[in-house]
Design a protein that fits this description.
Blueprint: H1 2-16, H2 19-41, H3 50-90, H4 92-96, H5 103-121
């Protein structure tokens, strides 16, 4: 487990130097602000009863949650793939994997580090 946490820590440090994470963080903030603005506008629509506002809010909440989960999955894939590929190209993976560490531990450490970094930037 300590190997996974060490790789997670190093992945967070590596990911913090990339501009892609900054761009994803900014885009996430923009989407959250626009979604909040859209939800705040629902009660002010003319000719809409409070029951219709509640119904629309519940349906939009499910839709937005589904869309955010898809964006997070795609975003994490776009961030993780270059991270692992760059380790293979630079030879870091060749230096790490012969050690007493399983490939699954390396991938779990990368995933955990990117997940923690992504959660911290949102």
């Amino acid at each position: 487990m300590t190997q996974v946490l060490t790789i997670a820590r190093l992945t967070i440090l590596e990911a913090s130097r990339r501009k892609l994470l900054l761009a994803l963080g900014i885009l996430t903030i923009v989407v959250v602000v626009l979604t909040s603005w859209g939800f705040s506008r629902l009660p002010t629509m003319s000719g809409v009863t409070p029951a219709e506002v509640r119904l629309a809010s519940s349906q939009l909440t499910i839709l937005v949650a589904f869309m955010f989960s898809g964006v997070l999955a795609l975003g994490s894939t776009l961030v993780a793939a270059p991270s692992i590929a760059s380790d293979i190209e630079s030879g870091i993976a060749l230096a790490i994997l012969p050690r007493p560490i399983r490939r699954s531990q390396l991938l779990m450490g990368k995933w955990l580090g990117l997940a923690l970094r992504r959660k911290g930037s949102s």
